[in-house]
Amino acid sequence: QTTSPTEERLRGWWKKTPWAQVGLVTGPSVGIVVVDVDIGYKEEDLNALGLPLTVCSETPTTGRHIFLKYPKGRTVRNSASKIKPFIDVRGRGGFAVLPPSLYPDKRPYKWIISPDDADMAECPDVLLEPVGEHEKTDFSKLVGGVGTGGRNHSAASILGGLLRYQPTHQW
């Protein structure tokens, strides 16, 4: 995504589908990186990253989304459990679900620190180095199943691998 929808377009979407959830595209076009902390993480792993105090939400599964400024002139790729187990990075081409969206069982996403109450902090280098190099995906391992917290990333990798060899007009 290279542009954000206008307020008029958003209002039209909400009028047409008032039950829709709220999502945020991450990456340089919007200037945001999200650290997605999944259920099962260890508090000491999160603390070891030394993330600054910043805008943050709680997910319905007691995880967190930590919002940071996308670093100018750098590439932040999406990753799943590369920096620490159950801690994902949503950078270029990623997305995060925002409050007040609801989980399928109706539990809500909630702001811990709202963007109305604080500015987003700078993205620390510790998030960039482990996910900076693109690794080739071993698709045979993905087909055999993945662990908790890796489904979405694995599905996107498989789909990307398939689409890579198809002309875009056939997508």
Concise structural overview:
The protein contains four helices and nine strands; from the N terminus they run H-E-E-H-E-E-E-E-E-E-E-H-H. It is an alpha+beta fold and 171 residues long. Strands 2, 3, 4, 5, 6, 8 and 9 form a seven-stranded mixed beta sheet that branches.
Q: Please, could you describe this protein's structure?
A:
The chain has 171 residues and is of the alpha+beta class. Helices cover 20% and strands 23% of the residues. It has helices at residues 7-16, 43-48, 139-143, 151-163, and strands at 22-25, 32-37, 56-58, 64-69, 79-84, 87-90, 95-98, 110-113, 121-122. The strands form 2 sheets. Strands 2, 3, 4, 5, 6, 8 and 9 form a 7-stranded mixed beta sheet that branches. A two-stranded antiparallel sheet has the order 1-7. The longest helix is centred in the C-terminal third of the chain and has 13 residues, at 151-163. The two termini are 16 Å apart.
